[in-house]
User: What shape does this take?
Amino acid sequence: MNIIKLRSMLNDFYLEDIGDRDLTSELIFSSENMGELSFVAKQSGVFCGEWIIREGFHLLDHNIQVQIMVQDGTNIEKGQIIAIAKGAVVHLLKGERVILNLIQRMSGIATKTANIMNLIEGTNTKICDTRKTMPGLRVLDKYSVRVGGGANHRNGLYDAVLIKDNHIAFAGSITQAISKVKAGLGHMVKVEVEIETKEQLLEAIEAGADIIMFDNRSPHEISEWLLEVPDRIITEASGNITSKNVREYAESGVQYISLGSLTHSVEAFDISAKVLIKY
Assistant: This one.
């Protein structure tokens, strides 16, 4: 986790939520009112977000004491205490909702990823994410996938080349697209090509692709087409892959399966903040 980036993000999130001041908390409590707040899991799954809790409260008040009870990646049970924060009530309440929103989303992603990983256990395939993340939250979404046992695809448009169907259509062919990319690309960046037909597969191999993505192909098609792929090329499957068929895709022999659903339609993990003590 990039703590510098995280602190900057939290700063923006607090500015959005708190604005000029927290009217409710500041009118009810003084800075002398102290208390303890616990974060409690209301379902079972994989926890993710310990840095959010720690840095989130410390950004508001360095005097708040944060005790993390479980680490990122820990399997937690319903009713389990995740963390306890002790300090000024006004600051505990200011940070409560932003922190909850983030750790609920992150734990939901980690839990969903872990569930998918369990479904393909025993295979050599890895599960990875996509760019279908919540704008502004990509670094947290992708961190959550790693915590859940998955791998990260490219972080954005800047760190890897992925030639998709529209690139190919505009360029005229896979060969033309790869040729233009490699003419201006440094040697440290890999080139991935999305293919939908066997003809495109053979063209991508001939043109020098480093990674080939089988897009919306059946497990049977992939297993057959893999026979044409040299060992030097990494393979990936994507499109219409769900928890119901992910095992079948993994057993096709493909090396990676990318799932947009890990992040674009995640269900928030149920966590609540409960007052332990007020004094």
